Amino acid sequence: MGVSMQMGGSRSEGRLLSAILIVAICLTMAPVLRLFVEGVTDQGAPSLSLMGDVLSKPSTMSALKHSLITAGLGTVLSLVLGAAFAFLVALTDLRAKAALVFCLMIPMMIPPQITALSWTQIMGPSSVLLKTLGIAPPLGAPQPLYSAEGIIVLLGIQHMSIIFLTLRAGLRSIPQEVVEAARVSGAKGLRTWWQVVMPLTLPSLAAGTAITFVTALGNFGIPAMLGIPAGYVTLPTLVYQKLAGMGTTVLAEVSVLAMLIGAVAVIGILLQRFFQSRQKLHLVGATSRPLAIPLGAARLPVELLLWAVVLVILVLPMSGLLATSLVPAYGVALGLDTVTFTAWYEVLFRQPSTSRAFVNSFSLAVGASLVLMVVCLPLAWLMERHKTRLSRLFDSLLDLPYALPGVVLSIAMILLLIKLPFTEATLYGTIWIIFLAYLARFFAVMFRPVQASLKQLDPAMNEAAQSVGASLFRRLRDVILPLSAPAAAAGAILVFLTAFNELTVSALLWSSGTETLGVVIFNLDDSGETAMASALAMTIVLVVMALMAVIQLLSRRFPKGVVPWQT
Amino acid sequence: MADIDLSSVGKTFAGTPALQDITTRFEDGEFIALLGPSGCGKTTLLRILAGFELPTRGQIRIGGRDMANADTGVMMPPEERNIGFVFQSYALWPHMSVRRNVSYPLEIRRFSKADIATQTDAALAATGLGDYADRMPSDLSGGQRQRVALARCLVSDPCAVLLDEPLANLDVALRASMQGVFADFHKRTGATMVYVTHDQAEAMAMADRIAVMDQGRIQQFDTPQTLYERPKNRFVAEFVGRGAVVPVHGVARRGEELRAQILGTEVAVQTDPEKSRVSHVCLRPENLSIAETGNLRAKVARVTYLGGKYLLETVSECGTRLLAETRAKFDVGAQLGLTITTPWAFSED
């Protein structure tokens, strides 16, 4: 009642909001809460002693320091790369922008451990590519990427698309008149950029930086592949090592560490929120035509430079991966006499787990996209209309399952579902535990774009339907759903692409028969089958790129906003 | 029957009162205009009638049915009120064609396919949209969009139609023609219409009665003619029509006639016979005539050509600005004599 009194909406809206909110909270917050409880209790009794112990350990402090250093500097690198690309693509008359944007999206869609795998293969002494080119460092020389710098560089590359996308969205909403007015007043090129465009984009730049930092902080694949061999431990890898060690208090210790990561992540999210709330202040005017400031004679060199960067961050590691997948054994130089498709044939057609994993990953990704769409659409709309205290709290916490490292989330899921309440049944070992974990993890990926689009929806659209007598269900179906469908589709595409090749969550939750693609690659690499792992990784990259290409090709038939990297 | 009854309706937003103690009645079939400056609460009142907002105090009845009652907590949701609403932004659903936009209310009411088709065609024809039925809203001009919104509201035969500044986004010529469309629509359907606007010419042209609102209260609720000729207070006198409000110094009754001291001259005034005292008069251009013998001396400060006549802004010797109309042209700075004829006097606290 209190809910509907505030807005004058119908009471059924208040009831539906409560119902969906409870489902959403169970999906996303329950695992986080369960983990929290584990950290602050000792054999059933509340206790903070363990927390104090874990936090005061030197290993925790050094991992925290390493995490902050790598995530922080990695974010700076993402910021420099992503912002440069965003400004140039959004503001100038570069050619082939669509192709450039497409290529920039790919690093985000490739799982971090594959990124790490491919880079180690082009950089180290046993690099097939470097050997083939004859410029490999001598055997026994250290792999230069097994270091803090290596982690920073790869984190920076991996997440630059996040900065790029947020900033470009912000730049697109700058009314063209603002820039034109500056130029009419006599401001030239860089001055316009520095004094007019920059101040207006600061909020989205800051917001993008915060998300990037949180994502980098939770990244497991890159510090695991590069840091563990070098003894450089970050918080997510410390969690992993603790689990591998196993002991009586391991889960409690892990949950304390997870809370530490969560605390840093929440600070990042709150900062992002703060900056985004300031963004509402400006941005009035037409934004119909995109800006295209002529670069003049500098255009060709700038284009060459941008494509060179794309070559380094995308083509080079991929060719390394390809080269490794084509040699008979890891370490052999690639040549006309050594090239072989054995690894491809073996992994794609001989290993039964591969096809199983394809089916599993595909169904999980499709299922998660669909379920999340059904839950997030009405929820985002109702939360926009009825701002209750609970919905506001949920809004500020729902990024947590995405910000926490996948390993931590999967432990939380195990704790929560190993024994279902009131029954003897367990979901552990079934595909459902992975599915529920995906729903929790990718909730924010789906929810945020839908929420953003509904915030821009004219409330009169709904009120008009109300005034002609449409019930809540009819309004959702006939007005709200079609109008927010582009954003929902964009969210679903992002969920699908990220879930399809996800590793860190399923790494702890899989069992024989429920492997995902990420798990298969990890296991192959772990057991020394680097060539086969590379072949499968390459396949996944190709499948993802093919899917993205199909979406891109169909983009003209979709309503505006469906293709996430074109918003 | 769709008479609308409001009794002591109040609304506060986060502690700030937007509407205070509105008690009034709109008769069935009346065309009512809510007129006032922006922020006066007129749109809030309209949204409360539609059910998009809930009153903080008081109750609302439409056609004898309780719509909202802040005391008992009764709240009929907008979708059950059978009310039409025309939005300032038109609020056409961009993903539906013109025909679907118009037929949607009938789909909701589960009409048969044939009925939907005939009634939709009738509504489209009545608003002159027959040729545009299969277009999308984005392909229409502003005036056409507004007519679609009107057709959508007309098709379901609502018991009352609420219009929220529906012409604010249209150009002057379109406004005039759309005013005709609304007036025809009102004549044909006989529906009770409540029309929010800040444009007095629009309100005067269409409404049977106008409620002039300011600071969350209805200042005066009368026919356009009464509002213009017999304003109740200074706000209404200044907001409706041209004119100046000047204080009265001393009143004397001479038989039937009431004579007042205004700007140093004594003139006969009209006033509400029920009011015992007057404090101000409203000097419309009609109350001022230019004559060499006029005992009120004034200097022309600005001349505006109105087409066929001139509006003179003059300043009297005591510094009061007065508006007069004339067919002859005067130059800025010219000295005039003015005569005041029977202005309307009212009492202002």
TrEMBL record, chain A:
Annotated keywords: Cell inner membrane, Cell membrane, Membrane, Transmembrane, Transmembrane helix, Transport
InterPro entries: MetI-like (IPR000515), MetI-like_sf (IPR035906)
Primary location class: membrane
Annotated membrane topology: Multi-pass membrane protein
UniProt GO BP: transmembrane transport
PROSITE patterns registered for this protein in UniProt: ABC_TM1 (PS50928)
Domain ABC transmembrane type-1 residues, every copy: 64-272, 358-553
Record flagged with keyword DNA damage: no
Cell compartment(s), UniProt: Cell inner membrane; Cell membrane
UniProt keyword annotation of tRNA processing present: no
Pfam annotation, one family: BPD_transp_1
Transmembrane segments: 68-91, 98-119, 151-171, 220-238, 250-271, 357-382, 402-422, 428-447, 479-500, 531-551
UniProt xrefs under CDD domains: TM_PBP2 (cd06261)
Family assignment from sequence similarity: Belongs to the binding-protein-dependent transport system permease family.
Protein name: Iron(III) transport system permease protein
Species this chain originates from: Celeribacter halophilus
UniProtKB/TrEMBL annotation, chain B:
Record-linked Gene3D superfamilies: 2.40.50.100, P-loop containing nucleotide triphosphate hydrolases
InterPro entries noted in UniProt: AAA+_ATPase, ABC_transporter-like_ATP-bd, ABC_transporter-like_CS, ABC_transpr_MalK/UgpC-like, P-loop_NTPase, Transp-assoc_OB_typ2
GO molecular function: ABC-type transporter activity; ATP binding; ATP hydrolysis activity
Keyword Transmembrane among record annotations: no
Top-rank lineage group of the source organism: Bacteria
GO CC list: ATP-binding cassette (ABC) transporter complex, substrate-binding subunit-containing
Keywords from the named record: ATP-binding, Cell membrane, Membrane, Nucleotide-binding, Translocase, Transport
Coiled coil: none
Domain ABC transporter residue range list: 4-240
Entry protein name: Carbohydrate ABC transporter ATP-binding protein, CUT1 family
